[in-house]
Design a protein that fits this description.
By secondary structure, the protein is α+β, with helices and mostly antiparallel strands. The protein has a single domain, classed as Roll (Nuclear Transport Factor 2, Chain: A), CATH 3.10.450.50. It is built from two helices and six strands. Strand 5 and strand 6 form a beta hairpin. The protein is globular and about 35 Å long.
């Protein structure tokens, strides 16, 4: 069993970077977040603020493991994980609900 956050830190490389993009419509970090402690703190902070009904689904994003965040049955955000030796080196989170039209085809 892991203490809160300790297992999460073990999944992150020492040079991890978190990039977020809310498309100008959803709050996101203005600058990349560097380092395992700051990234983990930021992720746990986001999870605490997650709206009821938000679910995470494992997916392949750009050929790498990732997550699709679904809110009330509608894709809300995509998180791409850049993995190295089984640990996360980079997380890129893109909000798609606010800019859903840019993802529509046709």
């Amino acid at each position: 069993m892991c203490a809160r956050g300790v297992c999460a830190l073990a999944l992150l490389t020492g040079d991890i970077i978190l990039h977020t993009d809310g498309g100008g419509k959803v709050r996101a970090a203005l600058n990349p977040i560097y380092g395992p402690s700051k990234v983990a703190r930021g992720l746990f902070g986001l999870l605490r603020k997650a709206p009821p009904g938000l679910t995470l689904h494992v997916a392949i994003v750009n050929g790498q493991p990732g997550l699709v965040n679904v809110l009330d049955g509608v894709p809300f955000a995509v998180v791409a994980l850049d993995m190295v030796a089984g640990r996360i080196r980079r997380l890129t989170s893109l909000s798609i609900l606010a800019n859903y039209n840019m993802f529509l085809l046709g």
